[in-house]
Amino acid sequence: MTAEETLVLVKPDGVARGLTGVILARIEAKGYVVTDLRLVQPDRDRLAAHYAEHEGKPFYEPLLEFMMSGPSVAIRLAGDRVIEGFRSLAGTTDPTTAAPGTIRGDLGRDWGLAVQQNLVHGSDSVESATRELEIWFS
Ligand code: DAT
Ligand code: MG
User: Fold this and answer.
1) Nearest protein CA to atom 22 of ligand 1, as residue
2) Listing from the earlier edge strand, what are the strands of the sheet with 33-40?
3) Fewest C-beta in 10 Å: which of 9, 29, 61, 125?
4) Is the CB of 50 within 6 Å of ligand 1?
């Protein structure tokens, strides 16, 4: 049986702040396996596909602008229950209140912007993971 897979992104803030290594170290220390990894400068079409569920929300345009502001590191990650497990490692969306011990809680903060810069993305379901891996690794 094939292990579950998820898409993780180290977003432009994480790459720009030089945190790719510490984020990868946390993922590897947890025991998940990186099976593919690439530095990607996404265009608007790729991001619109990735964030389709958020179209029309107040933070949508700022989110796309932020995600186009620099490269992200796209990671294909494998392991049993990796979708749930990485979301737990990442912490909740708002970095101000994300639990200490999580990536967002330890390494992120509010910068007073229209969109939260919270360092990482992780797929939220098997369906999302399949869709998002195709978007970033095709
Ligand atoms: P997550 O990344 O935790 O799955 P999401 O899918 O709801 O969160 O939103 C995508 C990104 O958009 C999120 O990582 C940060 C930003 N965001 C979400 N809700 C926001 C809000 N209310 N205000 C500002 N930015 C927000
Ligand atoms: Mg999400």
Assistant:
1) 59
2) 33-40, 72-78, 5-10, 120-122
3) 29
4) no
